[in-house]
Write a structure and sequence with these properties.
Layout: H1 9-16, E1 24-28, E2 31-34, H2 35-51, E3 59-63, H3 68-79, E4 83-86, H4 93-103, E5 107-111, H5 118-121, E6 127-131, E7 152-159, E8 165-171, H6 172-179, H7 182-185, E9 195-198, H8 205-216, E10 221-224, H9 231-241, E11 245-248, H10 250-263, E12 272-275, H11 283-292, E13 297-301, E14 308-311, E15 325-326, E16 331-335, E17 348-353, H12 365-371, E18 372-373, E19 376-385, E20 391-396, E21 401-403, E22 406-408, H13 410-418, E23 423-433, E24 437-446, H14 454-464, E25 473-476, H15 490-495
Parallel strand pairs: 1-10, 3-4, 3-5, 5-6, 9-10, 9-11, 11-12, 12-13, 24-25
Antiparallel strand pairs: 1-2, 7-8, 13-14, 14-15, 16-17, 17-19, 18-19, 19-20, 21-22, 23-24
Helix pairs in contact: 2-3, 9-10, 10-11
């Protein structure tokens, strides 16, 4: 029996807008773009990539803010059988170098006037080319890296549990399998009158796949902004474009609602507010009803799941403190720490399987074998599922710190601190924060006879880590609390307050 060919994203882009090519598609920089204008830009990018020698199975990386060129480059790359890799410009020089080496791109596109240090790219074989937000001007040439699966669509970078960069390759099937259930799961979200706010960073799977591709591949309009700050600009854009579906992380909601409260203003016509990436303070839900006219749907996902795993159905039947119910496209198991399968309503580690779950990490068999077993993915999160299927995230099985929706691995922070000449050892933990969800707090033991200050160490980290990974506070200890097995007791470190 012949296997049915899977649809690709560039094909869905065309079929979702067929017969509507002159209709508004994208609100950008104060005006609406019809679909055919965006498509013309994508065709231009495709032609230039082809001329530059881009081939099937290759990848391009971009270090760009949200903009039409990001969407156009992605569509062009897919048409040529390649993949895109959005990268965080503020990842820190060392991490950025390591990430790009893992990705092995044919070319890297950066913003015009990008201030990234030349030493980041020194000795690398690919070219670095500038791109404006609305076109490709510069002549460029692609190098030939090792080709990969043509089904790869987007490769997201994340730090591993050891602090080393990992890359998560989402296929066309993965993304479409995560997009398609949403209309059924959240009735009314993807209507013809919907305008989705696309303001989350594109190097985050929640931003690229859900804020951006969800609208584009569903025939919905979107309000595209390069970033969330200044907040007043975002509020103005929501009003001007008529955005009525807000997708964000809890930190964004805190700032948005805070700005509206300060102004004594409310936004009207908002149909949905959806958050993910971190645990939501339930008190924010009340403020959302007051200033946005609707409660918040909290969701849960992981990059390895493209990314949504669970979300509420509507603000009216949401259960505060839960992340809604699982998409029905997932098989779900609850296991104990020894991988023994438990009853669905017992507290345990969540494992999932389904078409939106990636097959493993990019060129990393070791990390893949640690998290993927027979098609099942170990989320590393401890959950509790009630009798109605609502999911509560109890805790993280790992010690990941989540700052404004971004993962921070303690060992990466500790490695950075230990490179300072005065530091003998370091330990990093998360500390609750009303704005960011958590912030990084670290403790160090100094080498004998060496001295340094908290400010000096923070400044040192700023040069070597992404901004959200930099410890806000650093304390000095003679020794760390240790378990009988010799492990640092992070729960005890979390209790220690560092003077402000």
């Amino acid at each position: 029996m012949e296997t049915k060919r899977q649809e690709r994203l560039e094909e869905r882009f065309e079929s979702a807008w067929k017969g509507r090519e002159t209709e508004d598609c994208l609100w950008w920089d104060g005006s609406w773009w019809p679909w055919n204008r965006l498509n013309s830009l994508a065709l231009d990018c495709e032609e230039k990539l082809k001329e530059a020698g881009f081939e099937k199975g290759q990848r391009i990386a971009f270090i760009l803010p949200n903009s039409p060129i990001v969407i156009a480059l992605s569509l062009a790359c897919w048409k040529l059988g390649g993949a895109v890799a959005p990268v965080n410009a503020r990842a820190g020089h060392e991490n950025l170098r390591d990430t790009l080496q893992v990705l092995d791109p044919a070319a890297v596109f950066v913003s015009e006037g990008n201030e990234l240090s030349g030493r980041v790219f020194e000795g690398m074989k690919f070219g670095i080319f500038s791109a404006s937000q609305e076109k490709l001007d510069q002549k460029f040439e692609c190098v030939k890296g090792i080709p990969e699966n043509e089904d790869h669509a987007v490769i997201f970078s994340t730090s591993g549990t050891s602090g080393r960069p990992k890359a998560v390759p989402c296929t066309h099937l993965n993304l479409l399998s995560n997009i398609d259930p949403i209309n059924k799961h959240i009735p009314g979200l993807l209507n013809r009158d919907s305008v989705i706010l696309n303001v989350l960073p594109n190097f985050h799977s929640f931003g690229f796949n859900i804020s951006g591709m969800l609208a584009l591949m569903s025939g919905c309009r979107q309000t595209l902004l390069p970033g969330f700050v200044p907040v007043d600009h975002t509020i103005d854009a929501i009003r001007a474009s008529g955005a009525n579906c807000i997708i964000g992380v809890p930190t964004i909601m805190v700032f948005l609602l805070g700005a509206l409260s300060k102004k004594g203003e409310r936004l009207s016509g908002i149909k949905f507010v959806i958050t993910g990436g971190d645990r939501l303070n339930v008190q924010i839900n009340t403020r959302s009803k007051e200033y946005l006219g609707t409660g918040i749907l909290e969701g849960y996902g992981l990059t390895e799941c493209s990314p949504v795993v669970a979300v509420g159905h509507s603000a009216d039947d949401s259960r505060l403190g839960t992340v809604g119910q699982f998409f029905d496209t997932y098989e779900v198991q609850i296991r104990d720490r020894n991988d023994r399968i438990l009853d669905m309503h017992e507290e345990g580690v969540l494992w999932v399987k389904g078409p939106s779950v990636v097959s493993g990490y990019f060129r990393d068999e070791v990390s893949t074998s640690e998290r993927f077993v027979d098609g099942w993915f170990n989320t590393g999160d401890v959950v509790r599922v009630d009798k109605d299927g609502y999911v509560e995230i109890v805790d993280r099985a790992t010690d990941i710190i989540i700052v404004s929706g971004f993962n921070v691995y303690p060992q990466e922070v500790e490695n950075a601190l230990c490179k300072h000449p005065a530091v003998q050892s370091a330990a990093a933990v998360g500390e609750k924060n009303s704005l960011a969800g958590e912030i990084v707090k670290a403790f160090v033991i100094l080498k004998e006879g060496k001295e340094t200050t908290e400010k000096e160490l923070v400044d040192y980290c700023k040069k070597n880590l992404a901004h959200y990974k930099v410890p806000r506070r650093i304390g000095f200890l003679e020794e760390f609390p240790i378990s009988a097995a010799g492990k640092v007791l992070r729960r005890e470190l979390r209790k220690i307050e560092i003077g402000k």
